[in-house]
Amino acid sequence: MKKPATKSFGILTSGGDCPGLNAAIRGVAKATMGIYDMNVMGICNGYKGLIEGEVKQLSPEDVSGILTRGGTILGTSREKPFKVTGDADGEVGKNKVEAIKETYQRFGLDCIVVLGGNGSHKTANLLKDEGLNVVGLPKTIDNDIFGTDVTFGFYSAVDIATDAIDRLHSTAHSHNRVMVVEVMGHYAGWLALYAGVAGGADVIILPEIPYDIESIKKHITKRAKGGKAFSIIVVAEGAVSYEESKLSKKELKKKMKESSSPSKGYAIAKEIEACTDMDVRVSVLGYQQRGGTPSPYDRVIATQFGTAAAELLYKGEFGKMVAKVNNKIITVPLEDVAGKIKLVPKDHRLIKDARMVGTCFGD
Ligand code: F6P
């Protein structure tokens, strides 16, 4: 075997945590230590640890027995080193990037492996442009990273949300209630779509399809007239009404801030109560969707992404994100991923499938 292009690298987890992060760390570390005899350094708390030089040696024991563990053994943060802060010329931003370069040199790193979402890959691409070697693995429960069909964390969140929707079905049915289930997904509605279909939701509200409350009212009252006095409405936290979709980002933020409803699920429940005589309750799944052990599928995809990253380190192919497209593990240039979000296309096949079994999308 020819000499690996990478002798020593750092690995970090950045952004919102999710099930599968430790499985991915394990995949990268076991392959690089075991096959390529590389030195693996753990960078604590995402890019914050890279700025502050919080870097520790990882041993085979550190990455043993973590396949099934939720969260991340390295810790994470939402640090954005390139974000221009208060001062005019972005001095702090420049210092953070200089600090990262200093850490990279000080620990003799040949590459940084980033397990992260959209924001983390945007930073990874900027670090590449600064001359650092970077490899990315797509992580998020939102499944909204451009360039890959799937991110690890997504299917675990679908499993968690679907189990919750199944449980909420029985209590809604028993009480003849409308149950509004709010799931995560600020910009993209992949989680709401998949969990909504899997959970047999009557209404699914996506950020990509602005809703008309009259359409929702018509659907659930028609169900009630047909003898189904209960309904399940799955709402992505980033969903907007048709009127709200016409507002600027700033106006929308102001409206949400001034709203008496703490989140979109409560807002929609209030709108339904105002135009029907139905009994409505709300369940916000929140951070449960980000916690706990990864599903078997996520353990597999995280391991596959980890070993694919190990091969890139061996070959010295930097500046790429590993991905799964049409069921094949491939690599995508970071510049093709950075700054983009993979939204649910309005003509997505699963939306059509859901409509064919009678699901309403509020339009
Ligand atoms: O990006 C994943 C995610 O869980 C989103 O679905 C959610 O809106 C956001 O993170 C919550 O961010 P935080 O963990 O910083 O509260």
Structure description:
The chain has about 375 residues and is of the alpha/beta class. It has two domains: about 190 residues, Rossmann fold, CATH 3.40.50.450; about 140 residues, Phosphofructokinase domain (Rossmann fold, 3-Layer(aba) Sandwich). It is built from twelve helices and eleven strands. α5 packs across α6 and α7 packs across α9. The chain is elongated and about 70 Å long. It binds 6-O-phosphono-beta-D-fructofuranose. The site of 6-O-phosphono-beta-D-fructofuranose (F6P) has 11 residues, from loops.
Radius of gyration: 22 Å
Q: Give the CATH level 1 class of the largest domain.
A: Alpha Beta
The CATH topology of the largest domain corresponds to Rossmann fold
Question: Which ligands, by name, code or SMILES, are bound?
Answer: 6-O-phosphono-beta-D-fructofuranose
SS content category: alpha/beta
| Largest sheet descriptor | 7 strands, mixed
| Helix/strand order | EHEHEHEHEHEHEHEHHEHEEHH
- The helix fraction, in percent, is 40-55%
Number of discrete domains: 2
Secondary-structure blueprint:
Elements: E1 8-13, H1 21-34, E2 39-43, H2 47-52, E3 55-57, H3 91-106, E4 111-116, H4 118-129, E5 134-138, H5 154-175, E6 178-183, H6 190-198, E7 203-205, H7 213-225, E8 231-236, H8 249-258, H9 264-275, E9 280-284, H10 296-315, E10 320-325, E11 328-333, H11 334-337, H12 349-356
Helix pairs in contact: 1-10, 5-6, 7-9
This protein binds 6-O-phosphono-beta-D-fructofuranose.
